[in-house]
Amino acid sequence: MEKMWAGRTAGETNQIADDFNSSISFDSRMYRQDITGSMAHSSMLAACGVLTAQESEAINDALAGILEDLDAGRLTFDPAAEDIHMFVEAVLTERIGALGKKLHTARSRNDQVAVDLRLYLRDEVNEILSLLTDLLKAVRDQAAANVSVIMPGYTHLQRAQPITFGHHLLAYAMMLTRDITRLEDALKRMNVSPLGSCALAGTTYPTDSEITAAALGFDGICLNSIDGVSDRDYCVELLAAFSALMMHLSRFSEEIILWSSWEFKFVELDDAFTTGSSIMPQKKNPDMAELVRGKTGRVYGDLFTMLTVLKGIPLAYNKDMQEDKEAIFDAVDTVKMCLKVFTPMIATMKPLPENMKQAAQKGFINATDLADYLVGKGIPFRQAYKTVGQCVGYCVKNGKVLETLTMEEYKSFDGNFDEDLYAAIDLENCVEKRISKGGTGKASVLKQIDYIDAFLKGE
Fold first, then answer.
1. In a domain, 84, yes or no
2. Residue 391 and residue 368: Cα distance in Å, rounded?
3. Statement: the pTM of the whole predicted model exceeds 0.85
């Protein structure tokens, strides 16, 4: 295939250099966006009198045919083409002759690839937002089903205070709402058209970039042509948002891995989202959660790749920027796959309430409530704290929990203890007493679910 840039040079490069320079192996996934952008560009050229209406119609009909043939598999990508833009233009020219060569009037591959990438990522991010919404619904439903299920809350991975499983799950729901809004914000900044920037300085032809922007669903145009072809901020922003999302999924995965272990046994994962061992028949491994946790580092790497590619290149376009695509494509693919497996894993996860409650009872997580009880009797908190610490130490030594200490044993530590302390340290009561906004009390948790419901409705 003759190089489209033949002229200044003979257009001949070493085969190894050709392969090194080529991007069609990965940018071919943008064929739909490339053809859609070209059709909008052709229509704009006709509207501005650069092409005749008949010329534009012939070009667009041929482009539509190419798109249809690619979708149907009747046309395959030529690895000899340097990139998707050159491939489409070559096929177009092959089909309609010299007229196909007019399509590139008032356009450069620099603004062409910039618009392709924005269109592609807009489509992909909207799909990711849909997948994220599905996950948020699954987490919300599990939370609603476990509003009153008591479990130990942890700090430093040590049992700390009683909470409900629903409350814990809603913490991840809140994270997911922020992931959604981060991506929505990034979409707003990304949704401007670079077409018309050409190589970097604009064009001498009487064109109207507002026409192509509107036709392609953009909110506006890039206001600086140099910025239009060299900006990849939106890739960095999306990768940062993807990284935050994956960090949340990784933390959630870590807890699921712990919860499904025999040491915790708070949940049981559905068989469809676990694997076994080739040698140990008793094993039920949380491989999906582990893979999500592992793939988080991959998305982080894509972010750092993008930042490193961009950090030292001068304006405007440089070939280094070809390296943007594999990183962002990999992150998109990884995030989508993780969400597709994570949502049904959460939806089918079976909580084990009795095990959670037993762990809560054995963890002395009502100790703070016992100290608060003494404070209510007029004892300074620090003195109450020390007394309860002594009670806990006694329990550990004698194989008891706070609920099973006798009143005689309690009074040996402080005479202010009375029979009403047992109600004060009852786990259900401990949870319900957390009445502050955002806390683990049932009324608060139900309000959090209401917030998620309103968020899902776009309110």
1. yes
2. 12
3. yes
Marked catalytic residue, from 156, 167, 250, 253: 156
Is residue 91 located within the same domain as residue 123? no
pLDDT one digit per residue (tens) for the chain, 459 residues: 555 545 555 556 678 887 787 899 999 999 999 999 999 999 999 999 999 999 999 999 999 999 999 999 999 999 999 999 999 999 999 999 999 999 999 999 999 999 999 999 999 999 999 999 999 999 999 999 999 999 999 999 999 999 999 999 999 999 999 999 999 999 999 999 999 999 999 999 999 999 999 999 999 999 999 999 999 999 999 999 999 999 999 999 999 999 999 999 999 999 999 987 667 767 789 999 999 999 999 999 999 999 999 999 999 999 999 999 999 999 999 999 999 999 999 999 999 999 999 999 888 889 999 999 999 999 999 999 999 999 999 999 999 989 999 999 999 999 999 999 999 999 999 999 888 899 999 999 999 999 999 999 998
Per the annotation, the verdict on 260 as an active-site residue is: no
Contacts of 311 (CB under 8 A, 6+ apart): none
Domain closes at, from 72, 105, 138: 105
* Domain CATH for 186: 1.20.200.10
Query: Domain check: are 127 and 168 in the same one?
Result: yes
What is the chain's length?
A: 459
Instruction: Answer yes or no: 43 catalytic.
Output: no
Residue 397: which domain range? 363-456
Which one from 25, 130, 261, 277 is the annotated catalytic residue?
277
343-372 burial, b at 16+ Cβ within 10 Å, e below that, comes to bbbbbebebbeebbbebbbebbbbbbbbbb
